[in-house]
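R.M. (postdoc): so does anyone remember the format we settled on? I'll just put the structure tokens first.
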């Protein structure tokens, strides 16, 4: 039995759980540390494996890839969902997909959101680069104070609500919008409901907290970015494609958008020659929202447990229970 652990960028998977429990049962474990360059490369590399362990959405797993893996018998997924994984295609082949517990993603992502808001507001990334280059204060590089400013939240679910509560401690005025948000639910979360255009036009900082789907892909395009308050800050810790990348680059280059603080991108890992890397008015982090010691220990411990349960004929936490019918 051959098992592949994918996308262990930080090389921490084997140290995060007791994989010897699987080796003692005859499971041979191979860890891939780098992303595949293409679907064809992924299919060739994974063809010999019976079990594939996915780290969130790092490697897309569409139907086309599932169909090219004849030996595949089990998929395990860290987290509770992945829009880039075709669980139905797996079910049609009788391949169960086991997921892990939710973990602390809500807390860790909302905390990172505030790290990015503060870094963008005070332009810390540029100041840090200047310090390393031997420079001191340059112009008004200290940025803006947040107290009394307006925070606009696009999405006010669990993550958005956490961010809203912290905003109150900073003395910010908090407003929110999403397609299904009501004024009553907004007030309960500590925010005022505003129509999207008004939120865009009046917010000093806008933070996105939506799930990527057909309704949210490209939600903020050129027209929406043009409606934002001049000099505003945009923060995205949700999913890159919610914001039109070309429009974002133009808004940043023109200076209409003062700063973008991003943890997510259209393509991940972000290519080394990507234009975002060359702009001064951006703060970039490499999709760290869920990347914490606590989460990774739980993810990989649950992964080992999922594989053991499947070997025992009692698969756990199934994303596609129809696979067993």
């Amino acid at each position: 039995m051959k098992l592949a652990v994918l996308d262990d960028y930080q090389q921490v998977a084997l140290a995060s759980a007791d994989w010897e429990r699987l080796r003692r049962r005859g499971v041979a474990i191979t860890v891939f540390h780098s992303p595949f360059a293409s679907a064809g490369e992924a299919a060739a590399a994974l063809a010999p494996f019976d079990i594939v362990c996915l780290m969130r959405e790092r490697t897309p797993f569409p139907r086309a890839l599932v169909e090219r893996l004849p030996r595949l018998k089990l998929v395990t997924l860290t987290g509770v969902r992945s829009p880039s994984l075709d669980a139905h295609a797996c079910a049609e082949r009788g391949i169960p997909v086991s997921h892990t517990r939710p973990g602390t993603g809500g807390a860790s992502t909302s905390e990172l959101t505030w790290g990015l808001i503060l870094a963008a507001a005070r332009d810390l990334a540029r100041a840090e680069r200047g310090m390393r280059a031997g420079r001191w204060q340059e112009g008004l590089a200290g940025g803006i104070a947040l107290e009394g400013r307006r925070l606009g939240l696009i999405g006010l679910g669990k993550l958005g609500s956490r961010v809203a509560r912290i905003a109150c401690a900073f003395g910010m005025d908090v407003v929110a919008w999403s397609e299904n948000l009501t004024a009553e639910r907004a007030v309960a979360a500590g925010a005022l409901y505003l129509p999207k255009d008004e939120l865009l036009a009046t917010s000093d900082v806008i933070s996105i907290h939506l799930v990527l789907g057909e309704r949210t892909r490209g939600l903020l395009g050129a027209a929406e970015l043009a409606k934002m308050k001049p000099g505003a800050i945009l923060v995205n810790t949700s999913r890159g494609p919610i914001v039109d990348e070309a429009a974002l680059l133009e808004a940043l280059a023109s200076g209409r958008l003062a700063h973008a603080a991003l943890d997510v991108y259209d393509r991940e890992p972000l290519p080394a020659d990507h234009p975002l890397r060359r702009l001064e008015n951006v703060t970039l982090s490499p999709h760290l929202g869920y990347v914490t010691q606590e989460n990774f220990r739980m993810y990989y411990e649950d992964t080992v447990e999922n594989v053991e349960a499947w070997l025992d004929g009692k698969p756990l936490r199934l994303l596609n229970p129809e696979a067993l019918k």
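R.M.: ...and that's the designed sequence above, right after the tokens. Also worth knowing: The first helix runs from residue 20 to 23. The domain at 105-284 is CATH 3.40.50.720 (Rossmann fold).
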